[in-house]
Q: What sequence folds into this?
């Protein structure tokens, strides 16, 4: 398959070659085969080499993809308004953002919370990449230097549970997934092996855990997957949400991500799954290309998220689309406010379209609010309450 992608620089290719050799060593050490989840874990997070661990530019126009906070500050301002509502109901608290990207959302949220007189006691950023931490620090120094003292970076879980809000924008789609395929009616794990030096797909009968989960999927859907059907499931999600439940004592976790309810995720016609790779704003389906230089994601099964969240002790406080959330949060009113600079007004209007239109992010990105300790979801979750679709 020919891909119309720009060729990486020689030093980037050399970096990728080093990671590829370590992956080959891991495959040999495992007997010639590893699961795709293990492969995805390494290409994204191997210390010093993985996509999110190394120093290449990832976000924005010069990177591989763009997220809502980079498109327009309107996104973060609307999110901040909802955070303020939760914090006020709790008498204050903390905000935690895992995977803060460039730090632009943290800076814009803090500035808007200051304007609303609702600053948190602390703004925690859970970030393991030293390179991204430095970029986040610089972003906050540039945009909100007077609020930098409220920001703390974490290597891992918070030392103690907190009250407040966890905000995760496009985080779950970067959790490693298992791929499966159906052969003669039986689930197989679609893992990775080597053909000479090339990485290739290699199916083998699914292990007990994956087989049980695929069986549970088919039972909940009321149908068997057809022969050759291929998709993915994030088996790490329940453990990850259990960890999050341990961080948040009372408050709301807000998740923004590309995804569907289960009934739409596992449609018969979506028979090759949702795995996508991004390099220089071009999407393709080859996760074996240039390890460590491209993003690899899978869309989120929000029904699986809701099930795992309930088992972890969360209440499913709301589920809607990004467009519905932002409209209920007053994004149109923000654009209609007069701006001193006409060009700025044009930029805001352009950002509004990208954030809201169905062909852009508006319908593809969903928002889930998970509540703990008696906290309530903020009002923007109820512009169009879609929770019933999670269980249909």
A:
């Amino acid at each position: 398959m020919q891909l119309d992608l720009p060729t990486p620089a020689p030093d980037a290719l050399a970096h990728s070659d080093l990671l590829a050799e370590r992956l080959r060593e891991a495959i040999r050490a495992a007997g010639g085969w590893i699961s795709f989840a293990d492969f995805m874990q390494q290409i994204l997070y191997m210390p010093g080499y993985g996509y999110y661990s190394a120093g290449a530019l990832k976000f924005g126009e010069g990177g591989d993809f763009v997220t809502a906070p980079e498109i327009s500050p309107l996104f973060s301002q609307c999110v901040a308004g909802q955070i303020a509502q939760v914090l006020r109901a709790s008498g204050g608290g903390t905000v935690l953002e895992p995977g803060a990207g460039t730090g632009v959302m943290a800076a814009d949220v803090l500035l808007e919370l200051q304007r609303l007189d609702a600053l948190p006691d602390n703004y925690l950023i859970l970030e393991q990449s030293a390179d991204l931490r430095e970029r986040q620090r610089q972003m906050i120094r540039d945009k909100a230097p007077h609020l930098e003292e409220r920001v703390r970076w974490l290597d891992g879980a918070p030392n103690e549970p907190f009250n407040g809000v966890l905000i995760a924008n496009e985080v779950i789609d970067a959790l490693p997934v298992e791929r499966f395929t159906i052969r003669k009616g039986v689930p197989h794990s679609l893992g990775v092996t080597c053909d000479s030096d090339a990485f290739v797909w290699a199916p083998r009968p699914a292990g007990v855990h994956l087989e049980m989960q695929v069986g549970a999927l088919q039972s909940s859907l009321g149908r068997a997957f057809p022969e050759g059907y291929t998709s993915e499931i994030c088996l790490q999600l329940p453990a990850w949400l259990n960890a999050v439940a341990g961080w948040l004592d009372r408050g709301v976790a807000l998740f923004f991500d590309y995804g569907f309810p289960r009934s739409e995720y596992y449609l018969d016609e979506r028979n090759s799954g949702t795995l996508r790779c991004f390099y220089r704003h071009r999407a393709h389906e080859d996760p074996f290309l240039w390890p460590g230089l491209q993003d690899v994601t899978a869309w989120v099964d929000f029904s699986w998220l809701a099930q795992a969240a309930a088992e972890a002790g969360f209440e499913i406080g709301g589920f809607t689309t990004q467009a519905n959330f932002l409209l209920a949060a007053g994004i149109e009113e923000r654009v209609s406010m007069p701006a001193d600079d006409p060009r700025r007004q044009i930029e805001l209007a352009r950002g509004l379209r990208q954030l809201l239109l169905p062909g852009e992010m508006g319908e593809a990105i969903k928002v889930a609010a998970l509540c703990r300790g008696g906290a309530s979801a903020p009002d923007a979750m109820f512009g169009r309450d879609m929770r019933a679709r999670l269980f249909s």
